[in-house]
Amino acid sequence: MTRATGADDAVRDDGGKRRGGFPMFSAASEDGGPHFGRFVSAMRDLQDLAVSAAPDPEVFGAAADKAEELAAMLRPYAAEEGRSPANRSIGLPGRGSLLMLPWMLTGLEPGRVTAAGVFRRYHLGGNGAAHGGVLPLLFDDIFGMVTHAQGQPVSRTAYLTVNYRNVTPLEKELTVEATVDSADGRKTYVSGRLWDGGTLLADADALMVRLQPWQP
Ligand SMILES: CCCCC/C=C\C/C=C\C/C=C\C/C=C\CCCC(=O)SCCNC(=O)CCNC(=O)[C@H](O)C(C)(C)COP(=O)(O)OP(=O)(O)OC[C@H]1O[C@@H](n2cnc3c(N)ncnc32)[C@H](O)[C@@H]1OP(=O)(O)O
User: Fold this and answer.
1) Distance 131 CA to ligand 1 centre (A)
2) What is the pTM of this model?
3) Which BP terms does GO give this entry (predicted)?
4) Domain parsing of the chain, residue ranges
């Protein structure tokens, strides 16, 4: 495995606020406080129910009232990127972001990152299997992490290819690994594999390109 070099030449001195084209985001302290994890967990339950509930029609009216009330409660606190604990709470599944899959890192070292978790009802594609679109989301995120762990923290995905080998079940603990296969200047070639026990569900490969200091 070739190690990437030269990451520091992408670092822009901007009062420590930016690195390459990216702002410098820090992890959320205490994963957003004592209630944030429970809040995100409840919201994930709601996501599952929003795509699966089939109540009498008036129940949706009552649910909409409560959803609008909750949105009105939080709207005054909407903050710019990098301020919310969502996506920055490394102790929570999916770093506390509803966009991310509710998975947890199980290993992080230069050249290799592993994670485990389940796809839920929210991620249903058809006939009990996960939607094909959520697998690239999983791979893209873990590819970002393995590239970061390799010392290329300001890289973006140039391409990502997924091979679907077997249907991906819901509500079953699965594992994923990402590795750095090679590196060439700004380019980091990565690959990943999604497993159900010993069954390979999908594999993927991608090119991550380190941003120039002026690139967003
Ligand atoms: C964890 C929370 C705690 C707190 C947070 C703290 C820290 C964060 C920690 C971890 C973060 C982890 C993950 C999160 C971060 C990111 C992960 C997500 C990544 C994404 O999800 S990001 C969104 C999707 N992504 C885009 O939005 C990219 C749009 N795009 C572009 O921005 C440009 O397109 C770019 C920059 C990619 C390249 O543009 P460019 O102009 O700089 O590059 P250029 O053309 O010079 O190419 C340079 C060399 O790459 C080759 N090359 C380029 N593209 C190629 C292709 N498609 N196929 C084959 N080769 C290709 C060329 O052939 C050349 O090769 P050569 O040098 O050999 O000639």
Assistant:
1) 25
2) 0.90
3) fatty acid metabolic process
4) 7-210
